Protein 1
Amino acid sequence: MKSRLAAFAAAFVGAVGTALSGSVAFAGEPRNWQLGLQDPGSLTAARIDSFHDVLTWMMAGISLFVMVLLLIVIFRFNEKANPTPTKTTHNVVLEIAWTIVPVIILVLMAIPSFSLLYYADRVEDPDMTLKITGHQWYWSYEYPDHGGFGFDANMVSDDDIAKNPQLKRLMDTDNRVILPAGKKIQLLMTSADVIHNWGIASLGVKVDSVPGRLNETWVQVNEPGVYYGFCSELCGVAHAFMPITIEVVSPEDFDKWVEEAKVKFARSDDGTAPAVRIAQNNVAD
Ligand SMILES: [Cu+2]
């Protein structure tokens, strides 16, 4: 309990510090003793976050209402308080009400829910496209609007972490996905083998990557920072070891990175595979 209190105090001080300084890069990752959702990092995630809050209040209200009804039954209609019960079995008005009212509540929930689904589905006129392919057990990425270079992103090994302790175990990849801040990015997903799922909680993205299909969503991230995600579809023995690491940088830094990446991830002449395989699958051995 003491350590929990200490952790809470540390988290609180950290949050206040971040709020005051305002310059710390956004961290799209889970925190110790976190309650609720991760801080929203994208436009979609912000909408999901506020919709979740509205639904939570509605659920709390309904739960409270049902609890009050139960308490009335328990205290007003028990054998002692009400020794001769009525023989009433039907109440037409009441029966219509408890059918119609839940329907109205569900429709009220469905309208913003569908509008959010369509909002997250796709974007018109994206600024760029990122193509994502799931493999057993790593992700590969392509930038078709920037010369079509691509690379694999494998989880960092314990040896890498020993050399660079800043890397997060089970969360960092050897090659990060670099994306520009403030741009509409179309995400196209497919798989080379089995169904994977590209899920990043703080960006509100969780889409299956299915062999032979191209699934689509989009993301706009305004805060530079590092955002972590995971394969979220059971895809085999190393399912837990194919994390996603996204680094969002300013558009100027992104352009610089693209120039470097075009050289670093240059393809062979036939254009089918990177000439140099920098990433290695940690899990194979
Ligand atoms: Cu997977």
Protein 2
Amino acid sequence: MRHHGQMHARPGVGVCPVPMNSEPTDSEHSNREHSAWGYLPPTSFRARRSALSNAQRETWDRLWPRLGMQAPSHTQAAEPTPREPLDTKTWFGREAPLVLEIGCGSGTSTLAMAQDEPNIDVIAVEIYRRGLAQLLCAIDSAGVENIRLIRGNALDVLQHLIGPESLTGVRVFFPDPWPKARHHKRRLLQPATVALIADRLLPGGVLHAATDHPGYAEHIATVGDAEPRLVRVDPGSEALPISVVRPTTKYESKAHEAGSAVADYVWKKRGQVTQSGDQNAP
Ligand SMILES: C[S@@+](CC[C@H](N)C(=O)[O-])C[C@H]1O[C@@H](n2cnc3c(N)ncnc32)[C@H](O)[C@@H]1O
């Protein structure tokens, strides 16, 4: 499947939440230092205001039990494979290619891309409860059936809920850039994170990352290119199993207004899946 054309942001979703209490402390870094994957940042996110409006609370109470779940904590972070991967077939009620979106914010891209690809199931992971509530409201209004939500750290989700070679795609759109040098270790996309993502992708599966921060863009390109199981692809000239056409979020619009260039990177996991499910080397 190849995807072309421009998508547009939908009103009412897409605000990247305003950070509160954004100064991290070094003591928060200890837990993941010795993960099976090497250094995984424990807190790539910031604490935020998370109060819900009455309407959001009503929608949350009604839909979360069916569409949402809380991720386990990082206490078992040293384990390389999940004890009991999530039963996504039961959760979605069907068997379909699965995409994990990390840090969906309030879900503009999640909703638009899921609507564009009703044959693909999308799990949106986010720490920020109000962002998930905004996405739930948008799902409710649009009647979209192929999105599920997980609240928690995406690294816990990847480690403990997602089995090896089970994802057709991973999306990381505008991860927090942590621009100060002393905070770079908080950046989500580190070599160990990319190795974990590569492990969870099916052969032929896609990692799509986007950022408006030049320094982080360079870092993302370096760690992605250094992962031996991934090969960088030009989405304009390569058939991919999922869309890489993103809508423009409010967050991205602000970056454009500030004169920042947006960089998109797409990697494909080496190997291919035949129709019978056998894997072949490239
Ligand atoms: C800069 S915002 C971008 C939001 C959205 N992707 C967009 O393009 O508008 C980054 C988001 O990633 C979330 N985030 C950062 N690290 C995360 C992690 N380890 N697990 C889950 N969410 C995370 C933050 O809470 C925040 O909402």
Protein 3
Amino acid sequence: MSRSDNDLERYFQRNQGRQIHKWVHYFDVYERHFQRFRGKPITVVEFGVQYGGSMQMWQDYFGPDARFVGVDIDPRCRAWADDRTTIMIGDQADRGFLAEVAEVAGTIDVIIEDGGHYPAQQIATFEELYPRMSPDGVFLIEDLLTSYKPKYDGGLGRDGTFMEYAKALTDRLNAFHSVEPGLVVDDFTRTTRSMHFYDSIVVFERGPVSAPRTQKTGLASWNPADHAAWEAEQARAGAPLRRRVRAMVPLPVRDAVRAARRNVRRQVRRLRKRLSGPR
Ligand SMILES: C[S@@+](CC[C@H](N)C(=O)[O-])C[C@H]1O[C@@H](n2cnc3c(N)ncnc32)[C@H](O)[C@@H]1O
């Protein structure tokens, strides 16, 4: 997608109002996963409101029918409440507070998690709110570069980071195929259509998932002659009914029918001539 096609990025680059702080490559990811919600009467929850600029950007992007809940630990963010935006002040690591957020928000369609960036906050937010989202909702968590930063309790492969947590969830996406008791189909398996990994972002797309089924089509043969014969048979079977019926009629019968039709046409022409001649 070129820059000019991305409304969010255009908005961001032209922003002269409240501050928005984003890694520039996020805009393609937003567009890819959020586009289908634009103009719809949805509920969007943003963790990490700060100066309110990103909330304004989401309002502009999702349109006038969307309602918003902004969550931040900083009470100054209350300033950004308006008639369609509720601001809730609290610690996103506190599961009791997250239950209140869920209560106030109701069914959530989109979550943008850009809060404190510590693993305990990220995991609590995901665990408390993800199961309560709409069946086709999208949970996007950003700034996961922090999973690699010691300052944020991160490090490569370090237990407890959100990246390690998300990697483990990829197994649960595949739980239908597991033969081990340690990996069984659960709510996450049944409600998550896909997970998407980008630089510093993981996106969870919800959707009802039932046991996958396998199917085979085409001919299982390495012999090209088998394939040629099979394709001819398929073409015959796929031809219109009239052609198929005609193919079943023996050639002499077809010739006789053709001759009879020619004869009838000739007779008709003669009759027409006689009728249209001088009276
Ligand atoms: C990176 S800023 C948000 C930036 C904003 N979304 C933007 O795009 O410009 C992170 C915000 O998370 C808030 N925050 C930090 N710790 C938090 C916590 N434990 N619970 C909720 N919010 C928290 C901070 O107060 C800050 O406003």
